[in-house]
Amino acid sequence: MIKSPSLRGKAFVIEVKVSDSIDALEDDAEVAVRQIHERGYIEELRVEGYRQIMCYGISFYRKDCEVRKGE
């Protein structure tokens, strides 16, 4: 999690995965976004008072990566 110094500022949740193959990049990035929601990271930030919360799932395979923005 990356939080701005002031409450009610912006917060970012980033979940990173390492893929086993280049074909798995997209699916793993989606899994990362789902994991953010399943583990309640966004709700935890809302309880702390953050209103602008952005989440990203990122998967890597060697030098390639896939980034998904979650809601």
Walk me through the structure.
- A hairpin with a 6-residue loop joins strand 1 (2-3) and strand 2 (10-18).
- The protein is α+β, with helices and mostly antiparallel strands and 71 residues long.
- A four-stranded mixed β-sheet has the order 1-2-3-4.
- The mean pLDDT is 92.
- The two termini are 15 Å apart.
- The longest helix is centred in the middle third of the chain and has 14 residues, at 25-38.
- It has two helices and four strands.
- The chain has helices spanning 25-38, 41-48, and strands at residues 2-3, 10-18, 52-61, 64-70.
What characteristic shape results from the CA principal axes? elongated
Helicity, as a percent range: 25-40%
Q: Could you tell me the strand content as a percent range?
A: 35-45%
Q: What is the number of helices?
A: 2
For the termini, the CA-CA separation is 15 Å
Mean pLDDT: 92
Total E-strand runs: 4
Oligomer: single chain
Low-pLDDT segments, ≥5 res: none
SSE pattern, N- to C-terminal: EEHHEE
Major sheet: order of its strands?
A: 1-2-3-4
> Over the alpha carbons, how many angstroms does the gyration radius reach?
13 Å
* Main sheet: strands, sense, barrel: 4 strands, mixed
Q: Which structural category fits the helices and strands?
A: alpha+beta
